[in-house]
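Sorry to interrupt, but I need a hand with the structure work. Go ahead and set the record down below:
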Amino acid sequence: NEKHPEPYGLQVVNRIGENVEDHITITEISIPPMDHLMELKRDEAFSHFYIDKHRQLAGDLTSIFMGLRNTDDLMSVASYAREHINPQMFSYSFSVALLHRPDTKELNIPSVVHSFPDKFVENKLTGQARGREEEHRLFCFREDIGVNLHHWHWHQVYPGQGPENVVKKDRRGELFYYMHQQLSPAARKSSKARRRREDWKAPIKEAYFPKLDRLVSKGLTCKIGKFTIEKPQQSYRRIRVDVQALERWRSAIFDAIDTLEVKDVSMIYPKTTDQVALDEFTGIDILGNLIESTSLSINPNAYVNLHNQGHN
C-alpha cells in the first residue's frame, strides 16, 4: 500500500515460490504500534550510537521484542518488523533481544558479516593508495572484519538504550571504558602512529580515505589533510553539535574526576544538592555510563553525550 510500499517478503515469495525445503508457519497476532519506528527509512544509514534518535528508536524496538510473551509471538512480530523496519536497525534490535530473552539467549546469533557483507567486502578496487599518510597504517585495523564484528557485537550485548534488564548490567560502564581503552591506543601503538591530540580546534594534519565504497557505507567519507572540525549540522539526522559543546562536556567530566564527585540528576532542581562519589569500586563504572552516554547516565543534562557526539 502507499503507507508501506516495499513488500520485500512478497517479492521473495514470488521469486522462490514453493521450491524450498523448510516452511515456517507464522502465527497471526495483533502487531504492537510501530509507525514511529518507520521514521527511519529503509535505505537510510543506521547508527545506534552516533545518532541519538536512532538509539532511541532501536531501544523502543528492542523493548517491543523483549515484551512479547513467547517465541511464537516474537517470530510473528519480527517477521512484520523485518518487512517494514530499517534492516540495519531491525538486525541490531532483534539481535539484542535474542541475546537477552530467557527463551532465546542460547541461540547462535548470525554474524553481521553474513547479514551485511557490503559493510566489509569491497565490490571493486578503489584505486591506488593515496600517498603515504601515517593514518593509512591503521586501515588494516579500522576496516578489519574481526575488530568490527567485535565492536558491533559488544554493543548488542551492552546496548545503551532499551529495557532496564537489558541495559543495566554489572560494571557496564567500566567495561565500556575497558573495551575502548584496549582498542584505540593498542592500534595506534602497534602501527607506530602518534596518539591523537586533545586540542579539537587545531587542524588535523593527517588525511584518511576509507576503502569501503558500498551504498550501506555511504556515511564513511574521506577526511582531507589539515582538516578543521567545525559544526556538523545534519538536519535530517537531527545532529546539532560543535567543538565548544564537546569542550564544555569534557570540562564537566574532568571536574567530576578532579573532585571525585558527579552531580546527581536532582542537581537540576534548586532544592537539592546531591552528589555521587567516584570511589575506587564504582567510579569508573559511573564515568563510563556518563561518557557514552547511556540510559544509566546519572545526569545526562550536565554531562550530555561526549562519546557519541565525538564520533560525529
The CA atoms of residues 290 and 297 lie 5 Å apart. The beta strands are 261-263, 275-277. Residues 1-5, 125-130, 267-271 have pLDDT under 50 and may be disordered. The chain is about 45% helix and 0% strand.
